[in-house]
Design goal:
The protein is built from 17 helices and 13 strands. By secondary structure, the protein is α/β, with parallel strands linked by helices. The protein has a single domain, classed as TIM Barrel, CATH 3.20.20.80. The strands form three sheets. The protein has an eight-stranded parallel barrel. It has a three-stranded mixed sheet with strand order 11-12-13. The two termini are 23 Å apart.
């Protein structure tokens, strides 16, 4: 087992004895940073929470989320992760657990207590923790997972948003600077800066501030444009691992089915190599901070589809293992979309949400769980065709890998329409007693969840 602080040496991560450490782990997304497709609500976490607070009242609202966070990660979860051969977890969290927009720069101790609990459980089981600020003031990208109610990443245009983020990281560094089971800090999840120079500048600023407090812990630095590209990056931040997110379209419903052809494998490797060109040029370590396919549960052909997805995952892991890369799969626990384990279909949570989840899928308000709809597709296609006709510049709107249809879906369906459904979701909790709410929260307890056995076997035998 590795010992002491982990650090960067050349293009490797090593322990205090100089022994190479390869971090293989999973993300605890869905708890301290909830996401719509992983937990079942529409839109953003804060919009949904606001609607739930209004329907449930303060006492029941606080009771439910206290029990939810408690059940989501316990000793049993850590034991299971360890049994799968994993030695690290990435812990996504929102800044809103630690400060309020209406009361900025006033720390909330409750947020630290929740994070402390996860770190302490992992430490007991000799699991490294990577602290990931998944949502920052102003939103570092345009997506729901940064709790963004719009498509505007205001973080990059307002210095105060950046100042508050540095301030919070300074407090986090003071809290964990002596903890050797904290592998390091992942300052921004999937930043997206249209100017393509401000991400690197912010990392340099953060480096200067944090190193004065904590000279030991590594940084895990995501690339720009959802951790996929490195334009504007020149100087290397010392003791830093550079992160790519390596999602493959063949692992999602809208992608081509993976059959393991030479052409598909060549495309997979070409995409991967493009993302890591910066790291190779500068001789720094690579961490695949997110990857993984989604899985089908209700499609008549789900068994065959999922077999293809498992084979795709095997191929990705084969590539990473060939290059001795550290990685963290997305995701450990959810409601059955991507997780290693998930809430049981018979659980109180899944039973309550089932009709609403079907409605969300038909309305295509979640990008990971949409069902095909000829009516919606026609509306989107017609509008995109008209926009591209009257404004050809729309096709060049950042990020450049999105076409006009993707921008429309994000802005109309997954932002505006999704937000209008938050009250409908919250109404599911009206009249629930605290006993009812405890049962709902307990759906996330390890002993009440179901395992995706083939996925977990692949991770446990990751060189296959």
């Amino acid at each position: 087992m590795a010992s002491g602080f982990l650090r960067v040496r050349g293009n490797k991560i090593v322990d205090q004895n100089g022994e190479v450490v390869i971090l293989r782990g999973a993300s605890l997304g869905g708890s301290l940073n909830m996401e719509n497709f992983m937990n079942g609500y529409p839109g953003t976490e804060s919009s949904t929470r606001a609607a739930m607070l209004q329907v449930m009242g303060t006492e029941n609202y606080e009771f439910f989320f206290d029990r939810f966070h408690h059940y989501f990660f316990t000793e049993k979860d850590a034991e299971f992760l360890k049994s799968c051969g994993l030695n690290s977890v990435r812990v996504p969290f929102s800044y809103k657990h630690f400060e309020s927009d209406l009361n900025p720069r006033v720390l909330k101790e409750d947020g630290f207590l929740r994070l402390d609990r996860i770190v302490n459980i992992c430490s007991v089981h000799e699991i490294y923790v990577i602290l990931d600020m998944h949502a920052v003031p102003g939103c570092q990208n345009s997506d729901w997972h940064s709790d963004n109610h719009t498509s505007y990443a205001a973080f990059w245009d307002f210095k105060d948003h950046q100042d508050r983020t540095v301030w919070l990281w300074e407090h986090i560094a003071r809290r964990y600077k002596d903890n050797t089971w904290v592998a390091g800090y992942n300052p921004l999840n999937e930043p997206s800066d249209s100017e393509q120079v401000r991400v690197a500048a912010f990392y340099e600023r953060l480096n200067q501030s944090i190193r004065a407090i904590d000279p030991n812990h590594m940084f895990f630095l995501d690339g720009n444009t959802f951790a996929m590209e490195w334009k504007g990056f020149k100087d290397i931040v010392p003791n830093s691992v550079y992160s790519i997110h390596d999602y493959i379209m063949m692992g999602f419903p809208i992608g081509q089915r993976y059959v393991g052809s030479s052409e598909q494998n060549a495309k997979l490797r070409q995409q991967y190599k493009r993302k890591r060109e910066f790291q190779d040029q500068h001789g720094v370590p690579i961490w695949v901070g997110e990857f993984g396919p989604t899985y089908e549960n209700s499609d008549p052909d789900s068994a065959a589809i999922n077999t293809c997805r498992y084979n795709l995952l095997r191929e990705q892991l084969r590539v990473y293992d060939e290059d001795q890369l550290s990685w963290s799969i997305w995701l450990y626990k959810d409601i059955g979309v991507m997780g290693m384990i998930s809430t049981s279909p018979k659980s109180a949570w899944s039973t309550l949400l089932k009709p609403f989840l079907g409605r969300k899928a038909q309305l295509q308000v979640d990008s990971f769980t949409t069902h095909k709809s000829e009516r919606v597709d026609k509306l989107i296609n017609d509008l995109a065709e008209w926009i591209d006709e009257v404004s050809p510049a729309a096709k060049r709107t950042y990020p450049s890998n999105w076409d006009t249809k993707q921008h429309i879906r994000r802005n109309t369906l997954q932002t505006f329409l999704a937000t209008t459904l938050c009250t409908e979701f919250a109404e599911l909790f009206r009249g629930k007693t605290q006993a009812d709410l405890d049962e709902l929260a307990k759906s996330y307890a390890f002993e009440n969840c179901v395992q995706r056995e083939e996925l977990n076997a692949i991770l446990a035998n990751r060189s296959c």
